[in-house]
């Protein structure tokens, strides 16, 4: 699987493109714009995968010459940054979310999970050097706001956001791969399981693998598949929230002890 990296474009050009400080119309391109180019590039990546994305492929889909794109977008590196910033703008950011901070963080996690399902190519982009565009910054601001005021330091707030989004990234991969397997093979997870389970029962020795036999049988009967990525995501999210809550309590207790001791 091809891995692309965000933040590989020229810094000045990337930031100008991300923040639209320079978006001059092209006479050759007619009504061509950065927005139209980016939306088309996202459509290509959604439909054909990130490996199929190129300036030439986007130009073909738009019906223009490849060189015409370069009057709007300097190169593929800058294009990828704007694609990322654009799809990050899709996440819902309601002002009011029931359930306090846990509800807010859970809503953020589910929005990010859904984003990966809509745009599976996101899993092929390493974003340790993120595109510093307006949607990325707005998303980060909203995610920080979810844990603001629960007793964490600024560094801990940043770490919690990183922890949650990193968890979602890992949990989304099996969900995306499951959907892709169903699409590419024409067989659902349930159909695959029902075809393989009878043969597994014949070869699996409970005496040699007692836990795998017991737990695997229980899970298989429950899921009617080898696994359930959506359920695993929700289970892990709840445990993650429990850990954050415990950290908040520890911080609150330490602060209270400090006041009492003083």
UniProtKB/TrEMBL annotation:
Signal peptide limits: none
A Pfam family this chain is assigned to: TetR_C_1
Keyword set includes Ribonucleoprotein: no
Keyword annotations from UniProtKB, A to Z: DNA-binding, Transcription, Transcription regulation
Alphabetical list of InterPro entries matching this protein: Homeodomain-like_sf, HTH-type_TetR-like_transc_reg, HTH_TetR, Repressor_TetR_C, Tet_transcr_reg_TetR-rel_C_sf
Keyword Cytoplasm: no
Chain residues forming the annotated DNA-binding region: 54-73
SUPFAM superfamilies for the chain: Homeodomain-like, Tetracyclin repressor-like, C-terminal domain
Superkingdom, natural source: Bacteria
Domain HTH tetR-type span(s) in chain numbering: 31-91
This protein's name: TetR/AcrR family transcriptional regulator
């Amino acid at each position: 699987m091809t891995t692309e990296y965000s933040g590989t474009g020229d810094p000045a050009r990337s930031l100008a493109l991300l923040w639209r400080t320079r978006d001059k119309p092209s006479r050759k391109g007619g009504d061509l714009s950065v927005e139209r180019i980016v939306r088309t590039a996202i459509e290509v990546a959604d439909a054909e995968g990130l490996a199929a994305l190129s300036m030439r492929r986007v130009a073909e889909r738009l019906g223009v010459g490849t060189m015409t794109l370069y009057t709007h977008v300097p190169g593929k590196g800058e294009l990828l940054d704007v694609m990322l910033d654009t799809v990050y703008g899709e996440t819902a950011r309601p002002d009011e979310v029931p359930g306090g901070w846990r509800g807010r963080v859970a809503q953020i996690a589910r929005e990010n999970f859904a984003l990966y399902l809509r745009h599976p190519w996101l899993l092929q982009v390493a974003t340790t050097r993120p595109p510093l565009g307006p949607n990325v910054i707005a998303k980060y601001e909203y995610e920080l706001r979810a844990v603001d005021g629960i007793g964490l330091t600024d560094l801990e707030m940043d770490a919690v956001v990183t922890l949650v989004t990193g968890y979602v990234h890992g949990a989304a991969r099996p969900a995306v791969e499951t959907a892709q397997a169903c699409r590419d093979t024409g067989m659902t997870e349930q159909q695959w399981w029902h075809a393989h389970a009878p043969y597994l029962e014949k070869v699996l020795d409970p005496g040699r693998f007692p836990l795998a036999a017991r737990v695997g049988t229980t899970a298989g009967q429950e899921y009617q598949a080898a696994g359930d990525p959506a359920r695993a995501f929700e289970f892990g999210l709840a445990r993650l929230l429990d850990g954050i809550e415990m950290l908040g309590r520890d911080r609150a207790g330490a602060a209270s002890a400090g006041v009492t001791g003083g």
